[in-house]
Amino acid sequence: MESKKWKEWIGGLVKREKLPKKNQLLILLLIGILLLVITVPVPSGSEVNDNTDTAVEADIFSSSESGAYEAYLEEKTAEILSQVEGVGEVSVMITLKSGSQKIIEKDQSSSSQTTTESDSSGGTRTVEDTSSDKTSIYSQNEDGSSDPYVSKELTPEIEGVVVIAEGGEDAVVQRNITEAVQALFGVEAHKIKIMKRA
What is the dihedral of CA 97, 103, 108, 112, to 10 degrees? Predict the structure, then answer.
């Protein structure tokens, strides 16, 4: 039905010899391209990760596991710092920048082929064709299911540390705590806050 209307409109323009101006044709062309781009499906995040050259990293550290990891670090740090001379009773709060990451092992195969062609006029042309294929490696569980093989697990990165200690007002104690936290977690000094316990 709509194609009939378009044909009538174009036929009317031809009869009246009022063809659209260049700008109008350009606008129609751009609208057509825009509609085409909108309708093309976009790959999901998992498809994009499969095309990268680096190992796939899966962020599968749940918030409850992350909280348990923070609590473990806070408890162990408070236990160690409370044994330092002048610190006294201590509480520690640690914030994480991100969750842990598991790097999944990939089996990668690649092939390359080079072809040199020459034409009758003496010119040569070299064509190089390379292809690469990546496949996740899976490990078999006892129940018959399979999970991706994790080659490495990266622990969460620590964002900042707050220490509240009885001896927190003493400059020597503050320096000792700061140096201990830096040695344990590799956190910069400006991300460590030490305060006196009330």
Answer: 20
CA-CA distance, 102 to 58, in Å (whole number)?
5
CA distance 48 to 56: 10
CA-CA-CA-CA dihedral for 146, 152, 157, 163, to nearest 10 = 100
Q: Are 111 and 131 in contact (CB under 8 A)?
A: yes
In this structure, the number of other CB atoms found within 10 A of the CB of residue 163 comes to 26
C-beta neighbour count of 168 within 10 angstroms: 19
- The model's pTM is 0.48
Other CB atoms within a 10 A radius of the CB of residue 115 amount to: 9
Q: Residue-wise pLDDT tens for the chain (198 aa)? A: 566 776 676 666 555 555 556 677 777 777 777 777 777 766 554 444 444 434 444 444 445 567 788 888 889 989 989 888 888 899 999 988 877 777 777 777 778 888 888 877 878 888 888 887 777 777 777 887 877 777 777 778 888 999 999 988 989 999 999 999 999 888 899 999 999 988
